Structure formats: C-alpha cells, structure tokens
Known about the structure:
By secondary structure, the chain is of the alpha/beta class. About 25% of the residues lie in helices and about 15% in strands.
Amino acid sequence: MQKYAFLDRDGTFLYEPEKPEKVDPRETFPLKSMSEFKFMDGAIDGIRALTEKGFKLVMVTNQTFLGTPKHPKEMFDAVMDKIDEELKKYNISFEFKMVCPHGPDEGCECRKPKVGGLEEFFKTHEVDFKNSLMFGDRATDKEFAKNIGVRFVEISTNGKFAVPND
C-alpha cells in the first residue's frame, strides 16, 4: 500500500489569477501568459517534504472549458510543462494527473468533487487511504477528499503551501 498526496493545482500550489467580482465561483480563471506563472510560497519545499516522507504525488485539477478561447489548450500545456520542468530540478514528478476539462454544469464524472477521473488510477494502484492526504483551497477539494476517503489539508487560495506536522 502506498500513501499519496493528492494536490489541487490552481490556488493551492500554483498561483491562480483573481476572479472578477460577481462570477460563478465554480469557474476557473487560468493564467493568460507565462509571465503570471509562479509556485505558491512554500510549495516546492512542501512538495519535496511530502516526497521525502514517502508520499507519491497525484495532481487533481478542474480546468473549466479547457480547449476553448477562454482557456486555450496551448497555454494549459505550457503551464503543465513548466510545472514538470521546475519539479524535475528537485527529482519530483507526479505519478498521475487527473484533469477535468468540463464546465461545472456538464454533468461529467471527472469533475471534483466527483472521483470518476481517478477510477482507472484506483484500479491499478494500491492506495493507503488512511495515510494519504488531499491538499486544496476550495470546498470542492474538501468534498473530494471526503469522497475518496483521505484527510483534507486546507490551503488558503494563493496562500502559503504547508504540510501538516502529523
């Protein structure tokens, strides 16, 4: 059995642009250019600490309307490549990445807090749910943690990424 750290991406370990007022709070506002790319304070050290404590990493991210003019796939791919490139400097990588490209009202099974995007992963990996963690900044992340049966670690949106001591 392997313990995993499930990590939400935007606002949790990677900077997320602020949302305009009076928009659907479920909507994402992706980076518009690579000049906005930055890891949250403590993210690299925290992710390194997780791997040093024996956790393997899984990214779980909702990317609303991925592949549309509002959220171009080319920009998404550039951000994902930069995450991988930066983490590789520390010999860190994600074992699995669950990316939901659907909107909040499309009714898919892969959008957090649903767990359908991890169905195949759970079939092929022996997860130590009791000792695994989910890091996130939204209520949907907390509900997702509950749905997969792992402890939730709340990170303030665009705040400091911190790993619990226990």
